[in-house]
TrEMBL record:
Protein keywords: Lipid biosynthesis, Lipid metabolism, Membrane, Methyltransferase, S-adenosyl-L-methionine, Steroid biosynthesis, Steroid metabolism, Sterol biosynthesis, Sterol metabolism, Transferase, Transmembrane, Transmembrane helix
Function: Catalyzes the methyl transfer from S-adenosyl-methionine to the methylene group of 24-methylene lophenol to form 24-ethylidene lophenol.
CDD domains: AdoMet_MTases (cd02440)
Gene Ontology biological-process entries: methylation; sterol biosynthetic process
Organism encoding this protein: Leersia perrieri
Reactions it catalyzes: 24-methylidenelophenol + S-adenosyl-L-methionine = (Z)-24-ethylidenelophenol + S-adenosyl-L-homocysteine + H(+)
UniProt xrefs under PROSITE patterns: SAM_MT_ERG6_SMT
UniProt xrefs under PANTHER family: 24-METHYLENESTEROL C-METHYLTRANSFERASE 2, PTHR44742
RNA-binding listed as a keyword: no
Gene3D superfamilies: Vaccinia Virus protein VP39
Protein name stated in the entry: Methyltransferase
Length: 364
């Protein structure tokens, strides 16, 4: 073969490979967020690496982030930075619902996710015309599933403006924008009047609050008397041993890689809820058998992680993705290992469910 023909063939194969990785394989979970669309929220291209460094130096020592008041006050701003860094990677590699769910035999991840979300609507006894609050709504995967399942209206709040725009765009696309509204704000001090919601829920979001009392107190305030609140909490279980180095490593790894100011213990949740005035109607770790493991979705994707990592590196090299994306992706990969370890050892659950009620006659 002539040299020129060989060069053209090699170039053709190269272009085809890049196309395959970026356009075909790159759209990992949900078509619509492709690898070439990876931005870093509202962070400008040249600032991504700096923001990642700032994030990492803040959350490197998880316990310290929540224990001093000055540091706890900074948590929402760093959580916002975290979601600027990860939102597109989450959507690209996981989908529009940023949470786990128990695996369901013979059903896809997407179906298992929907079932886990619809359970919230059923626990809340949500009805057409009800006004529900989604505390920490992400890009609105759960909000759309719950509004569609129960025909209720949902208002979501997230600290991250980029997520607000993504969620609104998804709501419009799904034809649910008349029933799903998204507000940018801090759930530790919400821009809603007292007693303005029939029900409320939070899915894997309140773990970002330095003090659970503060967010539960706000939910209590905005709920109508008699209103129900369901929360899926990230907690350590009774199997966690604070003197076991392997346990410490897994839990610290989860906290660092998920912008958490220190995980709470499972047995703290109900007492905090009671402290702010709620009645505790139900409390259950939804990850316990007969539920099938939630972490298999993380484990089974090793080949996908390798492929994604390559895609991210190629896109950074081609300057399509900003510098720093590869580091963020690597951090998430490590976080996935810690989460898997937490699940396998049973020391951690992301789905400790509590069903709470604001008393019908306000006692507070
Ligand atoms: C509730 C929270 C987020 C939970 C999960 C949605 C995310 C936790 C870890 C994330 C991921 C880890 C590995 C990534 C992988 C390397 C990449 O190629 C594709 C995306 C991941 C799978 C990513 C997806 C979302 C998570 C599973 C926290 C923040 C409170
Ligand atoms: C892991 S995501 C879960 C999102 C959504 N519940 C879901 O399951 O798809 C956590 C969410 O909590 C939000 N959040 C964290 N701290 C917040 C705060 N102080 N105020 C408002 N939202 C916050 C984040 O912006 C993000 O949307």
């Amino acid at each position: 073969m002539e040299a020129a023909t060989m060069a053209w063939t090699a170039a053709g194969v190269g272009v085809a490979l890049v196309y395959w990785f970026v356009w075909v394989m790159g759209a990992a979970e949900v078509k619509g967020k492709r690898a070439v669309d990876l931005k870093m929220g509202s962070i400008t291209h040249d600032k991504v690496k700096d923001k990642y460094t700032q994030y990492w130096s803040f959350f490197r020592r998880p316990k310290e982030t929540a224990t001093t008041e000055a540091s706890a006050e900074k948590v929402p701003a760093f959580v916002d930075t975290f979601y600027n860094l990860v939102t597109d990677i989450y959507e690209w590699g996981w989908g529009q619902s940023f949470h786990f769910s128990p695996s369901l035999p013979g059903r896809s991840h997407r179906e298992a996710t929907r079932v886990h979300e619809e359970r919230v609507a059923d626990l809340l006894q949500a009805k057409p015309g009800h006004r529900l609050l989604d505390v920490g709504c992400g890009v609105g995967g759960p909000m759309r599933a719950i509004a569609a399942h129960s025909r209720s209206n949902v208002v979501g709040i997230t600290i991250n403006e980029y997520q607000v725009n993504r969620a609104r765009a998804h709501n419009r696309k799904a034809g649910l924008d008349s029933r799903c509204e998204v507000v940018c704000g801090n759930f530790l001090s919400m821009p809603f009047p007292n007693s303005s919601f029939d029900g409320a829920y939070s899915i894997e979001a309140t773990c970002h609050a330095p003090r659970l009392q503060d967010v539960y107190g706000e939910v209590f305030r905005v709920l109508k008397p008699g209103g129900l609140y369901v929360s899926y909490e990230w907690v350590t279980t009774s199997l966690y041993r604070a003197d076991d180095p392997e346990h410490i490593e897994a839990i610290h790894g989860i906290e660092r890689g998920d912008a958490l100011p220190g995980l709470r213990r499972q047995d703290e949740i109900a007492s905090i809820a009671k402290e702010v005035g709620f009645e505790v109607l139900k409390e259950l770790d939804l990850a316990l058998p007969p539920a099938l493991p939630w972490w298999t979705r993380l484990k089974m994707g090793r080949i996908a992680y390798w492929r994604n990592s390559l895609v991210v590196r190629v896109l950074t090299m081609l300057r399509i993705a900003p510098k720093g994306v590869a580091e963020v992706h690597e951090m998430l990969y490590e976080t996935a290992q810690h989460l898997t370890r937490g699940g396998e050892t049973g020391i951690f659950t992301p789905m400790h469910m509590v069903l709470l009620r604001k008393p019908a006659a306000e006692s507070k």
